[in-house]
Structure formats: C-alpha cells, structure tokens
C-alpha cells in the first residue's frame, strides 16, 4: 500500500463540476488501495476576489489580517471537496493548515514551514479516511495564522509528502507535464518524461509557472519524488527527481522566458569597498527582488553596473537609489523597460563547453541583440527586447535539438557543440 | 476604564461602506477610553451563499464539513473589519473562534460553548489593540472546528462578555431596541427602556428575532448586562438585565408572534404510563422541536392530545408517529397548518390574576377563535389562524395599554384587570 499526496490547484477545482471530477479522481486512487492525502488551493479566482475586497477597505492592509482573510479560500475548498467525496460514498476529512500540524515561522504573507506534526493526519488515514489539507497556510507556534505566499500550496504538498514519507507527491495542474519550452510559443515543444530538481528549479525560477520554486527546493532537500500531471487527462506526467535520465545528445533540457523585466543601470559609482553591499542591501530592505547583476569593469575609480528587476518594482528601485545617493555616490541612473529574460537550462551543460556560445549564435542568427548575459552551472540567461522573444525561443528550441519530431535530431546537437 | 463587548450582525457589515461605519463606531468607543472586544457575524448573505455552494455539491453534506465551510464567513468578516479599523489609524487584531480560546462541546452544527480561555484576548487588550473575534464558532478539545448554530454570534458575544467580566455587552442590530411588539404590525409599538432576562427569553423564543434565546440564557446565567441597539443610529437601545424596572400599570411587557405553526393531534392513545415519554422521545430523537403540548383528559382509557411543531417539521413528525404506532398504539392523527402563535409576556403577570382572561376577551372581541392555549409564569400563548394575526396583535397591544401615545393610558390597564 502506497501513501500518495495529490495536490490540486485552484483551476482544477474552479467549478462545482470540476470539483466533482477531482473527487472522482481521488476516489479512484483510494480504490487502488493507496492511502491518500490531498492538498487543495482556493477555488478559481477566490484569492483574487478576497484581495479585491481587502483593497476596497484598506489599500494597505496589515499582513496579519491578509493572512486571516486569504486562508479562508483554501478552507472553503477543502470543506467542499470533502463533501464531494462523501457524495461519492467515501469518507474524507478536511483540515486547515493549523489542524494538519503545519507550523511556520512567525512571518505573515510568505512564511516558511518550520515543522509538520503529522500525527493527526496519520490517525485519520488509519481510520480509513481520505485526508484533505488546506494548502498555502499554517500557524506559528503562538497560534497566529500564516500563509506561505503565492504557490504555497505546492510547498504544502511537498512538505507534507516529506513529513509523511509519502511514496510520491503528484501535482495536478492545467498542463500535462513539464515541457521543453512553452508549447503555446513553440508548437513542437516536447513533454519531458523526467527532469532533475536543479533543472526544474531553474525553469521554475525562470517563469515556467507550473511548479513553485520553493516547492522544488523542498522536494530536492527531502528527496520527494514529484510528478507533474494534468488534472483533466490521464496522460503520464513528468517525474521530477534527483538524477533525471539524460536523453542521448540532449544538453539543454528546456527553454524558459520571463516577461516584464526592467534594466536599471547605475553609472559612475565610486568604487569603494562595500558600495555594492550598501546599494543592494537597500534594495532588499525595500523588498525589491533584484535578478541579474552585471558589472563590466572599473575606470578612473568609478564603476558602471546594471541590474534587472520586475517592471512593477522599477519606479520603487529608482526611488531607493535616489534616497541613498548621499551614502553611495554615483553620477546617474538610466533604465529600460519591456525586456524579457530568455534562459536555457540543462544539467548536461556543465560537461559541454560551448553551449553559451551556441545560444548567442542562435539569437544573433535571428537578428536580435543581447542586452545582458548571466550564466550559472546549468543555465544561461540573456536579456533581450520583448518583441523578439518568440522567434528567439523557436530558434533556440531548434538549435538545441528539442523539437519533438524525430527528424529534428538529424544532424542534431552534436554537430553544433 | 470599562471593558465593552460590541456585537455586530451580518447586515451591519454587509457592504464595504457599512463595514467602514462599524469601524468608526468601534474606534469612537475606544476613544472614550474603553477596552473594546468586538464580535462579528458573516457579512450579509455570505452564510447562505456558502450553504448554496455546499448543496450544489452534496445535498446532504457531513456536519463536520459544513462547520469547516461556514466558519470561513466570520473569519472573512473579522479580517476585513480589522483592516477597516487600521485604515482609521487604530490597531486591531482579529481572532477566529479557536484562537480566541472558545472551546465547545464536540457536536457539529450547534455546539454549546464549554469553556473560554480569555488569556490571549486579555494580552491583546493590554497591548492596546481592539480585539475582533469571529462569532458563531469555536473548537473542540480535539481541535475540531465547530459552529454554535444560527444566532450563534450573539452567544459568542455574551459568553465572551461573561468570560472577560465585561461591563456591558452591546448587541448592534438593524432595529434600535426591543419593542412591545413588531412595529411593522403595530405602528404605535413602544420601544422598551428595559426588560428582564426572563421576559426577553420568552420574547426571543416567540420569534422576536432580535436576540437569540441561547444568548439570553447565557446572559441570565452569568448576569451579563445586555444592550440591544441600532448599528445605524445613536439612539439609546433596550437594556436587558435581571430585574427590569416596571412601568406604572404595565403588566404585559410585550407581544410576540410566531408564524408557520402546525398543529398535530393524536387521537385515541392508550393511556398507559410512559406513553407520552415514548411518543415525544421519538419526536425529539428525530430532531423535531415540539412546542405547545395539550392534553384535555382521558375517556375510556384513551386520551387525545395535540401539539405544535413548525410547518417544516409537520410531515416528518407524522412519519415518526406512523413509525411508532406498534409500540404506542393510537387510533388516528389529524393536523392543521397555517397557524400562528401569539403570546403576551410580562414578569408582572405573576402577581396580576386575570391577565389570561383579558387576552381571551381581546381575541374574541375581534371575532377570532382560539385553537390552543398554553400558559407559563410570565407568558400566555394562543394558537390562532394566521390570517387574523395582525388585528389580534393590535387589539392586544391596546388592551394591555402598550400603545405609545399618552392617551392610550386613559382608563388604562387597571380597569381591565
């Protein structure tokens, strides 16, 4: 008998009818003889509706009260899903985060899970119930209600799977697996059978919104076998695990892109020790998430450097920079909006030199100029203008031999390496 | 410095704008120097909407899951109200029932409060916060989420007032106090300055829906001073307390009516010991609330008796009677629907004989026949046909000198006694 954690996102339970289909799917799993723990998100637009309600009342609501408000969304889901399962003649018990023993750090809005006490879930399973746990939420040691932030339900599912030592954690979503790139952009995108945690992590961070990065980190840390699959079909999904099997000749596993990127450049910064720490420390203190940072060299004791932030943070970032000009002197700032980050990801890169050069070549071959570059062990990212993103991704997809038809491999990647 | 519990019902916080007005009202109280604990119900139709959602999924949902579902309504209210108070520049902390230390018996759907641990509320008050508690809900000792049933938020407020030893518990509602009868029926209905717990209890049970009977029982038991007042005006409300001051010459404090009553008569029941206990025990086991029971005598070892139930329970009650005919033999049953119970209530009745007779006289004076009668220390109830209820109430209101104009007292009640 296996112990399976199944996680369903908000769109999978967005309507009464979908809720019923999810219930049937859960019951089918139970009828296979498995012990089943289910994690659910808030239905459809519930969370956004609650946020709108809050903003109607207070444009700047306290984080503690937002957590009180938003956690109701998942509580509604778990109760209704339990009812749907009872309707099918099976018994289910729903639990909020605090009831399920999910203890978080004392932060509101994006708390990290500190501990899970799974006794109550185990005893419900022992009594033969299907257990349904509200995703995205927990409680602090002091009994305050917290949320795990966006994508938190994935994290709940993986953390529960780890605490329960589940055989597998299945993430049901509206796509049927992880693709080599967005199939809406590249028609011949291929569904991957397997992918490693690290690769998935890079893809997740890069805007492949299927799995939340924190959930993948958790899975990697606790070695939880993750399966990403569709809640609407019975297709096999993608298995995310420690060492994914490499397909012959495939160095790059996937291509991801992230929209709404802004570049900010700070020119003529005094090159004294600690200047970068002060500047990026100040940005971090204001909650601004800085992605790529590039510094090209020092001239006459002054440095120019550039970094990227989301377009939503651009104005705030410039304000912060203006505010610290007295402590961190610089000549000027410029910025550019409407950019996109395109990244290639693959654990095979480490042992295959020339992958980055091949990327630059593919991008220039479609006449697009690269504005910034950043590399890591298993990833190369380029910042380009938004309007070129689709043709760039298509070119990269072909260049790295990812196109799904067999003929795509003729004279494939090895030639280009 | 006083400690005040303020309770706001669902219609008082039904819209963003109303929520804002309630927040202002709470802040005003705090600015008077009081320590303020607020109890709120679910906004407007939230509870009914959630019930509809549940019924869409499962027409017969488990009570445990209904409690999980419905408690989200109040949790949304408390979070939003706390935000509205923050918006006014004051600090508020919201708490669910379990966070507020409200422990109930282990029953779902209509749990009774077993205990309240008010430490957390006290420490929030000590830190200078306004405390906002979700009404209608609690947790069992085992950590199951429970609800107190309809009207439960009143009970939460009174129970908290008792546990916190509050100076007063103010129930804000959409009427500005307790009236001698429904002002929509009798224009010259008078608002009462004071009323005793017992009188209020009779009125509450009799369909004067302003306060839930259980809340009044709680208030009586713990001697909590209750004030019923409007959330929309600053008018003084009605004080409910142990011994209400008697107005000169007023024996009957109020007149209440209850619609949708059905009478069931059971004829030719074997008059053996225990027969009534068996019959009404069976009805109670099926959750049928029997109100008035009348037995007129025994003839030839057989008895006829009649009782009233709500029209919604009528068919079920007849089914139960049919089901127990083997153990409790009787000849036949009849029933009548579309009845109303009209009651006069007043603590002064005890020492004023003839009050009942005066009631029968007033009813017959408008040509209405009485179908059943039931009396208690402070109440007389008559069952009449629904179509006559308004003229009967008006006649009784005048007969007992309750009309609000001064001239109503000319030749007032004493003459009629």
UniProtKB/TrEMBL annotation, chains A, B:
Superkingdom in the source lineage: Bacteria
Pathway annotation: Amino-acid biosynthesis; L-lysine biosynthesis via DAP pathway; (S)-tetrahydrodipicolinate from L-aspartate: step 1/4; Amino-acid biosynthesis; L-threonine biosynthesis; L-threonine from L-aspartate: step 1/5; Amino-acid biosynthesis; L-methionine biosynthesis via de novo pathway; L-homoserine from L-aspartate: step 1/3
GO function terms (MF aspect): aspartate kinase activity
Entry keywords, A to Z: Amino-acid biosynthesis, ATP-binding, Diaminopimelate biosynthesis, Kinase, Lysine biosynthesis, Nucleotide-binding, Transferase
Membrane-spanning segments: none
Pfam families named in the record: AA_kinase, ACT, ACT_9
Domain ACT: 264-347
Matches recorded under Gene3D superfamilies: Acetylglutamate kinase-like, VC0802-like
EC numbers: 2.7.2.4
Catalytic reaction list: L-aspartate + ATP = 4-phospho-L-aspartate + ADP
Cited function: Catalyzes the phosphorylation of the beta-carboxyl group of aspartic acid with ATP to yield 4-phospho-L-aspartate, which is involved in the branched biosynthetic pathway leading to the biosynthesis of amino acids threonine, isoleucine and methionine.
Family statement drawn from the similarity comment of this UniProt entry: Belongs to the aspartokinase family.
Protein name: Aspartokinase
Gene source species: Cohnella hongkongensis
